[in-house]
Amino acid sequence: MGIVVLTMKASVMEMFLVLLVTGIHSNKEMTKKVKRPKFTVPQINCDVKAGKIINPEFVVKCPAGCQDPKYHVYGTDVYSSYSSVCAAAVHSGVLDNSGGKILVRKVAGQSGYRGSYSNGVQSLSLPRWRESFIVSEGKPQKGVTYPSALTYSSPKSPAAKAGETTKAYQKPSVPATTAQPVTLMQVPGTTPEGAAHVTLPRPSQSAASITSSPRPQPVGHRSRELDLWATIAYTSSQNSPHASPGETDLWKPGSVLLDAGFVPKEELSTQSLEPVSQGDPNCKVDLSFLIDGSTSVGKRRFRIQKQFLADIAQALDIGPAGPLMGVVQYGDNPATQFNLKTHMNSRDLKTAIEKITQRGGLSNVGRAISSVTKNFFSKANGNRGGAPNVAVVMVDGWPTDKVEEASRLARESGINIFFITIEGATETEKQYVIEPNFANKAVCRTNGFYSLSVQSWFSLHKSVQPLVKRICDTERLACSKTCFNSADIGFVIDGSSSVGTGNFRTVLQFVANLSKEFEISDTDTRVGAVQYTYEQRLEFGFEEYSTKPDILNAIKRVGYWSGGTSTGAAINYALEQLFKKSKPNKRKLMILITDGRSYDDVRIPAMAAHHKGVITYAIGVAWAAQDELEVIATHPAKDHAFFVDEFDNLYRSVPKVIQNICTEFNSQPRN
Fold first, then answer.
1. Where are the alpha helices (DSSP H) in 114-204?
2. Helix axes 464-472, 298-316, angle to 10 degrees
């Protein structure tokens, strides 16, 4: 019996030991699993904004293709939380366009986010925003725990649409309440984004040959169509750089209502928070795009042209403190699609561009340029006066009318014309071009700066950045200077006894009538005046008045002096007291009015004026000596010396004097 008991005790102890060892081993296995959790880096899409993510610091993985302009970025180094996280990473240089992991850390909001172009991404400027973030390489720091699932401020997050693991942010539950479903509302005027972008299988080689079909030859007007694949390839390269041939857009559950113009009600409440840029102050220009809506372009090429305009609008950073842009479409006749003041930011401008429909007809570029010169750059249409006027003309092949005369008038009006020729005439087609070398006859200068020749519509997008850079280089916009806004004009007025009080007032009215024709400011044309008899008197200098009303009032206040006539001494005085203070970049114009022969020699003073680059116009009245006027006047005298028989006829010479001033200005070399 004792032996049996001992045997049972041994068995129990043996079982206990087995269970103990098994438990210890099992506990070790569980401990191992607890100690080694696996960190999963959450993935986000290119369009996810930092402000949508609640986590203050996190590591995420970005996909490829976030360099696309449609993913907006605000700021440099420190970015507004309204920015795309991944596009900001590309802009900062942390990522390239192939994607990868990044570390994101939220920081306080800033006042004044500076826009810049970096690593293929154009960031926009922004006055202020409530929250910022910075990005760095996606290396987790020791001792810091990063979320494997991001917390979003809205359950309708872009990441969720991609099937990623996310944790929806929820408010604490309140007793006696039930969760309200997200309601959908129709937004008037919304358009299904991307509805026009469909990816089709690449056509066969024979189908592709359609793009090089021969062009009909009557009146030099080409007509051709474009294969669908090439158009979609261009659109895809702009919006979905990683779509491969043969892919098709898949229907996603829940996408139908959204694509049809419905948005969640909660999304509507945040739309007013979207920041609107004031524009890039380093590119303050008033810009008109003249787009080719002729039948020869075809519908698909016209869409490419609109995409190009949208890319330009995005890259320019449109705003009241920066560039403003309007669009004129031409065919048989031009039509303004919208003017400079219609859209004051890039987002609205791109939406308007998308809605432009093709007009058809011929390619009457000359008629379009004339219309822009007469109507587009007016104050009523948003022209700001102080900003350079720029017109970019896009033409498919060649114009069907002449452009030279219309372009000359545009240049004389201070418009800087750029020309983009897409798929220009081949050697066999040049016989149909109405005006050979039309681009050089149209542009502001023939130095290559104002002309872009694009071999194919499908490489047009490569011209976006070169064109933007040139448009914004305001120092090189040479045609902003005109005969009306680029001179220092000094009037030298005879106040001798032979003139008389009544005639002197007539002379002053003549001076006022001439002054009215010019654009007067401290940066444009400036006006000064000297009155002389035997002696000389400075009535007012170039720096004294900077507005047209002030100049006209100053002319009215000039008092009649009376005395002798020392014209030679007056010219020397004007050179010393007026033109010595002229700005280096201004044309120096002296307009001398006299009614008689001078008591002193005028030859040496006149030669001194010509030597110093002062262009002299001599206006003689009544008893003035013609030979003396010709000596005073700049060569050729027939263009710079005028004579009228009576003071009352002075006003008749105003148009001729202005015409000669402008003709001389515009005869300067254009290269």
1. 158-161
2. 50
